[in-house]
Amino acid sequence: MDIQLFWISFAAYFTATIFHVLFLGLNRTRLGHVAAVFMVAGLAAQTAALIVRSVHTGHVPLTNMYEYITMLAWFAGAAYIVSIFSIQSKIVQAITGPVIFMLYVSASLLPKKAEQQLVPALQSYWLQIHVSMAAASEAVFLVAFVSSLLYLIKAGVQQPNPGNFISRLPEAERLDQITYGAIVIGYPLFTLGALFAGAIWAYRAWGNFWSWDPKETSSLIVWIIYSVYLHVRLIKGWRGRATAFLSIAGFLMALFTFFSNMILGGLHSYGN
Amino acid sequence: MKPWNIFVKLSDLRVSIVLFALIGVLSLVGVVNPGVFDSPVFAVCLYLFILNLVACIIVRIGRNFHSLRTIGPDAAGRARALGSIVLHTGVIFLFAGGVASQKMGYIRYGSLGIGATMPVQDRDFLLRVDDFSIDNNSKGEIKDYFSTLSIVRDSVVLVTKKIQVNDPLIFEGIHFYQSSYGKDPYVIQDAVLHISSDLMAIDTMVSVPYDDTIALGKRGMFVCVHDFFGDFVIDMKTREPSSRSETHNNPALKASLFDSFGSVLFDSWLFALHKGFHMQENPVVSIELTSYTPQLFTGIQIRKNPGVPLVWAGIGLASLGLVLIFYGPLLLRKKKRE
């Protein structure tokens, strides 16, 4: 049942992506509204899918790559809905929406078998705390990544043609603020959830807070990149291009973190 | 140069960025080559980073001492400044905890059967395994596994606990973790043999305890099983048997059957996966290894982790610092509005 709901939300996100692309090309506000409606419908179906899967398996679906990536997409979808009211930029939504659909496409390619029996190490409430906070922070970093990319596009073109995609982007300063705002939300979530909660759980399950496992190490690098971002911005007052590149590097590293255990194995290789 | 100026130089953000970059790049190399983390270069970078953090904290306290104590309009700024000091202090505690555990701690592993004991390094007590069990679900999948451990000093049991993954036994600073379990490659509990002989009119199944001899009916015969190997292999030159691995890939044991006078009627290797095969020439009886009960062992990880209190303090301080920096200003603004 949850798989059917997954495909319903997949169809909704796909339709939203078509309307987002049409909006970008034709600049009709109504198309942006329709895309947002399909995004909301997709998120509703995805929420139902997650609830059904949780009831079926007896645990929050966070135990394999398919479940993690759909949870990441859910948080990103939630961030999209929040952005409708907070950022109020249809262009930013029109870029974020298809990125969420891309996450969904990658989830659709992964094995979807629902494991009712968790391995003993995963039978802990730290699973929910650690993985959901990590997914939430990475979803917010995704927003920062998109706004940083848009910043580089906007700042790279001094005098865009009126009416084209670049001229309709929010001002570069506003995009820079969106990036900063997203990182300010994501950084403490990531530090507390991905690093600290993960370390506490590792201590309880494996006897060590830190093991230099590939996923741990690459998470540390993500943390270092965003720490540098915040230091140079808050202490040195850096803005613009340099911080946008740091934000992009941070998210790309987060993506690497996500796949690192598939490539390199390690202690986090439960759900490959 | 005055000490204060040394601290100011050391606390320079450029130094922090360079160290962040070095640690980041080395860590990236370490993802594919973990040996980097044991290298002196990595250790030097970490120690310099901590020195940089200490200098940062001292300089920040020095610069913000008065503003942190006074109550002024910029409460949000003060929350951030205080949070930053607390967060950086937390990171230093985390590092100190890691170093303490690495320098003064240890990790040992023990594969122990039920009833086995193991001495604990630096301590005058023994670890004893009282029980080990596996919990299966209705589909036969492994749900969890448990070991009942006792700490014994001078034959007195000091503490007993049933441990599982995520729930270790902690005693006098030593942690005992449920790490793994497995089948003993050299010992089993018992074997079921099918013994038959047309000549002697025998056709019976018998369960024989390992390394023990039992009487076979009323005929005065005795049978025993011994020399189990989980992954049997034999050296063709020396004819010496051994186990190729710690697994049960090719389980084999030796069965011996004696008549009432002690004469050997059968003495050969039997194989669980090749039931009809044995190495006895012209046997008067046929013996097959029908099944056997493996002897399970529990894998216990024993850790001395003296840095744990420092790490807990570090996590607590760093978390508090993060809340003060990122949520403190928000909370203050909300309070002001109210």
Automatic annotation (TrEMBL), chain A:
Its main location: membrane. Keywords: Cytochrome c-type biogenesis, Membrane, Transmembrane, Transmembrane helix. GO terms for biological process: cytochrome complex assembly. It comes from the Bacteria. It is found in: Membrane. Residues 63-268 form the Cytochrome c assembly protein domain. The chain crosses the membrane at residues 6-26, 33-56, 68-87, 94-111, 131-157, 178-203, 218-235, 242-264. One of its GO terms (molecular function) is heme binding. The keyword Transmembrane helix applies. It is a multi-pass membrane protein. GO terms for cellular component: plasma membrane. InterPro entries: Cyt_c_assembly, Cyt_c_biogenesis_CcsA, Cyt_c_biogenesis_CcsA/CcmC. NCBIfam families: cytochr_II_ccsB. This is C-type cytochrome biogenesis protein CcsB. It comes from Candidatus Raymondbacteria bacterium RIFOXYD12_FULL_49_13.
TrEMBL record, chain B:
The chain crosses the membrane at residues 12-35, 41-61, 81-100, 310-332. GO terms for biological process: cytochrome complex assembly. InterPro entries: Cyt_c_bgen_Ccs1/CcsB/ResB (IPR023494), ResB-like_domain (IPR007816). GO terms for cellular component: membrane. It is a multi-pass membrane protein. Residues 77-327 form the ResB-like domain. Keywords: Cytochrome c-type biogenesis, Membrane, Transmembrane, Transmembrane helix. It is found in: Membrane. This is ResB-like domain-containing protein. It holds the Pfam family ResB.
